[in-house]
Structures are given as C-alpha cells and as structure tokens.
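Bug #77: duplicate submission created two jobs. Keeping one. Sequence:
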Amino acid sequence: MFAQGDNAGETVVKDVLPHTDIDLVVVGAHSRTGWSSHLGSQASYIAKTAPVSVTIIRDKKISEDEEKIGFLNRQ
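Kept job's structure:
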C-alpha cells in the first residue's frame, strides 16, 4: 500500500488504518529534540492516536545516549 501526505503519522492513522485490516503498526523513531527525543514526533503521534497496537523501534544511538545519562536505569 502507498499513501502520501504532509504528516506521516496523521496519514497512517487517518488515511491508511481505516481502510485496511491492519492490527499492528511498526514504526521507527530517530528524532532527537523535545518530546520526540524519546519516541520521535511521528512515532509518538501514531502511538497516541492509532486504534491498533503500535511497536516503536528506536534508533540505537538514542538508546546509547540515554543510557549514558541514566535515562534507562535498569537496576
């Protein structure tokens, strides 16, 4: 399937999902500013608004940086 729009997250949620039988969205995240530093702005939008399950695959570099500052404290 191909969809086009100005905002990828909104296009997925409003144009693609209602017209398909999709039950899981897998999306990558790579942004590094603001709230999107943890999820990515498009990934965040999809996770918050999609009527189906969403799996976010984060960029390895972000995970490494967050471990350095203690964001992912796994004790």
